[in-house]
Amino acid sequence: MKVLVLGSGAREHAIVRSLVADHAVDAVVVAPGNPGIDAIALCEPLADVTDAAAVLALAQRHAPDLVVIGPEAPLVAGVADVLRDSGFDVFGPSAEAARLEGSKAFAKEVMSAAEVPTGLAHLCTTVDEVAESIDAFGPPYVIKDDGLAAGKGVVVTDDRDEALAHAEACLAKPDGRVVVEEFLDGPEVSLFVICDGARVVPLSPAQDFKRVGDDDAGPNTGGMGAYSPLPWAPEGLTDELVARVAQPTVDEMRRRGTPFAGVLFIGLAMTSRGPRVIEFNARFGDPETQVVLARLLTPLGGLLKAAATQRLDEYDALRWSDEAAVTVVVASHNYPGTPRTGDPVTGLGDVEGVPTAYVLHAGTALDEEGALVSAGGRVLSVVATGADLAQARERAYAAVDLVGLEDGHHRSDIALKASRGEVRVG
Questions:
Q1: Pairs from 240-245 (Cβ < 8 Å, separation ≥ 24)
Q2: Per-residue pLDDT of the chain (426 residues; tens, 9 = 90+)
Q3: Strand-pair partners of 377
Q4: What are the residues facing 32 on neighbouring strands?
Q5: 0.85 exceeded by pTM
């Protein structure tokens, strides 16, 4: 099987790494990829992953047996539709189905119809409506940009003025809308569910860390680290989420005539009242993918092909490593603001000396002399596995210490509380 993967981040690097390890996959082409991916697969230039015509031309040239779309923007833009209409098998939902991520308001509408447990929410189109809603809910205030915002469209704050300022910025965009939600307490869980339009197969849950600083200080980011599995999760949690969230959502999307085929990312809070969905995404999450795929033993290529061709009934339970996985994101100076780029990235070869540790490239590039430099906010995902979270953490941070990036930063507490048994539910 030949696979074409769209994207250029650490999520795509993790996907490509797993595809290359699948004996049924004999070739992987990535567009545009990054220097880390280029070491294990063929990378092709692609100026814009949302350019359906350019993606189609690339697919027609390489004739892949499967196209895997990594980021959300091309899904919302309908790239999967154009490829499917041209006869390609695609892992990734249609533009209509991707509205589960492209519009927070639409996702809430589907959750309501499917009776999925979630927080109360108001859709607002004016600052006055936002003010009225946040006063009704009370602090902490949760303000979400209705559209795509690369993981940074949400503000959770006790500061009313900050909440209103974020809402005003979102509303200033063309067709700007915001969703104001009640705050959901409790630890968060990320669950990926592979879907073929009718059936669902869950992956192992993970937890990510959105805030930039230790102890969840500072602004939201695209994610600063993650771990899997969740030793504190209630027994049967995944089965419960499939029965109460994933399958009803997929059933509702099929009932609407817009079946969801791809990966449904369920972000939820384990509140004192039980699990409540915070959001849906229409693609693999970053950085959770890095730890979930590190533990998946079932070959990835065959699984994604089955989802793309309505054959998930061939899969029952997936096979998983008993080991734990931790990933730590190394970020550029000033991320998540305007990150500084062009700084040398060093020490990656030294990471090979740390047992089980490896580096996935996120925002990297080669300069004119061929040296590796930073090219984005999140530069690297450093991954390690171990017999438990404590050992995986130890290895991941030992590897991070070997990486050189001037004025770079990372969180030092990824999976710390979980490894100490300090995460409580309810």
A1: 240/275, 241/191, 241/202, 241/266, 241/268, 241/275, 242/193, 242/200, 242/202, 244/116, 244/117, 244/275, 245/116, 245/117, 245/275, 245/277
A2: 999 999 999 999 999 999 999 999 999 999 999 999 999 999 999 999 999 999 999 999 999 999 999 999 999 999 999 999 999 999 999 999 999 998 888 998 999 999 999 988 888 888 888 898 888 888 888 898 877 665 557 888 888 998 999 998 888 888 888 888 888 889 999 999 999 999 999 999 999 999 999 999 998 899 999 999 999 999 999 999 999 999 999 999 999 999 999 999 999 999 988 999 999 999 999 999 999 999 999 999 999 999 999 999 999 889 999 999 999 999 999 999 999 999 999 999 999 999 999 999 999 999 999 999 999 999 999 999 999 999 999 999 999 999 999 999 999 999 999 999 999 987
A3: none
A4: 7
A5: yes
The torsion defined by the Cα of 150, 156, 159 and 162, in degrees rounded to 10, comes to 10
Phi, psi of 172 (to 5 degrees): -75, -15
- For residue 147, the Cα-to-chain-centroid distance in whole angstroms is 16
CA-to-CA distance for 383 and 400, rounded, in angstroms?
9
User: From CA 338, how far away is CA 21, in angstroms rounded?
Assistant: 36
CA distance 153 to 149: 5
| Residue showing tokens 């992956």 | 203
DSSP string, 48-95: -TT-HHHHHHHHHHH--SEEEE-SHHHHHTTHHHHHHHTT--EES--T
